[in-house]
Amino acid sequence: LWRFGYSARLLKTNHFGTAASNTSFPVVWTLLARYSGRRPQLFVVVKKNRFFTMPETVEDKANLELYSPHPEVRGMTLLNREAFKRTVVVPALRVKKETVNTLLKSLKHTVLQRPGLKRVVEDPEAEDSKLVLLDPHKIPDFSLGESEQEVLKHLSVSHEVSKYNLELTYENFKLEEILRAVLPEGQDVTSGFSRIGHIAHLNLRDHQLPYRHLIGQVIIDKNPGITCVVNKTSIIDSTYRNFEMEVLAGESNLITKVKENNVAYELDFSKVYWNPRLSTEHGRIVDLLKPGDVLFDVFAGIGPFAIPAAKKKCHVFANDLNPESYSWLLHNCKLNKVDNSVKAFNMDGRDFLQGPVREELSKELPLLKEGQKTSFHIVMNLPALAIEFLDIFRHLLAGEPCSAACLPMVHCYGFSKHHNPTKDIQERAEASLGTSLDGRCATYLVRNVAPNKEMLCISFQIPVDVLYKRPCPDEAKPPSKRLCTSKDSSEEKLLS
């Protein structure tokens, strides 16, 4: 207000909304700095003063840009850490050494609080004193408020506020602040990434690509433990679920270790699929399982469903088409000492369902007795294609089920760009199964993949009329008595 030539009256309202008192402008400025946003009873009436102006000072500008790197770094594509150095002016109090700690506690909301910056520095003018740096955003006019003055009076500290030249370096700025200063104004700043062990995985947009190597190096500098930064350069391949990537900064070692839900995994990130954003979903499905249950993992990857299920004493059949994923699945089963509980396969998903899954269900389901607690779960986590595999369940088994309660539960994942993704996923699943799932399924929103693109999981128990192919009543009769319909005629003929 002061800098742009405004005058103001601060009005305190009574319960009827009328002005109770007026306050002069100098007091207004102090009260605004101290109470703005804290006292709902106070409001400001602002009027333009056409005759009063005050030029902006260098100190004012420095305070406003306290946490901004030097403007000359704009457009930098090759990281130069020295270019980020700058000096800003901040308020400071001269305090006796024995009083410093007490003052810091009493003015903890006013002193400078910034990771990497010292709040207390040496006093060049007195050996027995220190300079306590204050936050210029809390002391905008280098003048303390009444409450701060009371604290200083109680501690016998001078009210005089000094101006201290604070040097800021590259180390003092945060990742997002650096990137916002470097990239063109008004464009998106990439500061988020997926972390896979020592690897940071980015999905940069086109306008960020000229700065990609700088972005990668800054991420390494500002995130301890990150030693490699990669950017995805192609879409995920629908067959093996991996993608091309470019190493932007750091070492080119893409074999890494991760830990998810207290389970350790090792993998080659350049050859297998791993998404840390699915940690919650992996845990949700495993929580549905009980010891003794059977899990068929159709697109198992390196084992984020299979291995925790095996550790939970479930019987696991895990499959993946990608030979690299299969290899790392076996490795991680041994790493977690569950290799005797997991039967691993390297097959196409359809072959896995029509082979090992059909064989196991055909063997185990007829043996189950009414009330037996064993459950069968089939996980199909290939969102781009999994729903198209559901037609496999049509008449997968022959005969009659021993109990409808024992029918397998399917957890199938899919992407949707529909305005009603839940309805879309259900209708597509119904089309593959050839039956309605109304009242027989639950749909769960896993995550937002991109604007207008959702990943969902639809869970349902396979309907008995879908899973089982029941014999025709005529098949039980002797061959001489069976009726059939000729392809060439609609008339029924008696087989001789």
Automatic annotation (TrEMBL):
<dbReference type="InterPro" id="IPR056744">
    <property type="entry name" value="TRM5/TYW2-like_N"/>
</dbReference>
<dbReference type="InterPro" id="IPR029063">
    <property type="entry name" value="SAM-dependent_MTases_sf"/>
</dbReference>
<dbReference type="GO" id="GO:0005759">
    <property type="term" value="C:mitochondrial matrix"/>
</dbReference>
<keyword id="KW-0496">Mitochondrion</keyword>
<dbReference type="GO" id="GO:0070901">
    <property type="term" value="P:mitochondrial tRNA methylation"/>
</dbReference>
<keyword id="KW-0808">Transferase</keyword>
<protein>
    <submittedName>
        <fullName>TRM5 methyltransferase</fullName>
    </submittedName>
</protein>
<dbReference type="InterPro" id="IPR025792">
    <property type="entry name" value="tRNA_Gua_MeTrfase_euk"/>
</dbReference>
<comment type="similarity">
    <text>Belongs to the class I-like SAM-binding methyltransferase superfamily. TRM5/TYW2 family.</text>
</comment>
<keyword id="KW-0949">S-adenosyl-L-methionine</keyword>
<dbReference type="InterPro" id="IPR056743">
    <property type="entry name" value="TRM5-TYW2-like_MTfase"/>
</dbReference>
<feature type="domain" description="SAM-dependent methyltransferase TRM5/TYW2-type">
    <location>
        <begin position="193"/>
        <end position="464"/>
    </location>
</feature>
<dbReference type="Pfam" id="PF02475">
    <property type="entry name" value="TRM5-TYW2_MTfase"/>
</dbReference>
<dbReference type="GO" id="GO:0002939">
    <property type="term" value="P:tRNA N1-guanine methylation"/>
</dbReference>
<keyword id="KW-0819">tRNA processing</keyword>
<dbReference type="InterPro" id="IPR030382">
    <property type="entry name" value="MeTrfase_TRM5/TYW2"/>
</dbReference>
<keyword id="KW-0963">Cytoplasm</keyword>
<feature type="region of interest" description="Disordered">
    <location>
        <begin position="474"/>
        <end position="496"/>
    </location>
</feature>
<dbReference type="GO" id="GO:0052906">
    <property type="term" value="F:tRNA (guanine(37)-N1)-methyltransferase activity"/>
</dbReference>
<keyword id="KW-0539">Nucleus</keyword>
<keyword id="KW-0489">Methyltransferase</keyword>
<dbReference type="Pfam" id="PF25133">
    <property type="entry name" value="TYW2_N_2"/>
</dbReference>
<comment type="function">
    <text>Involved in mitochondrial tRNA methylation. Specifically methylates the N1 position of guanosine-37 in various tRNAs. Methylation is not dependent on the nature of the nucleoside 5' of the target nucleoside. This is the first step in the biosynthesis of wybutosine (yW), a modified base adjacent to the anticodon of tRNAs and required for accurate decoding.</text>
</comment>
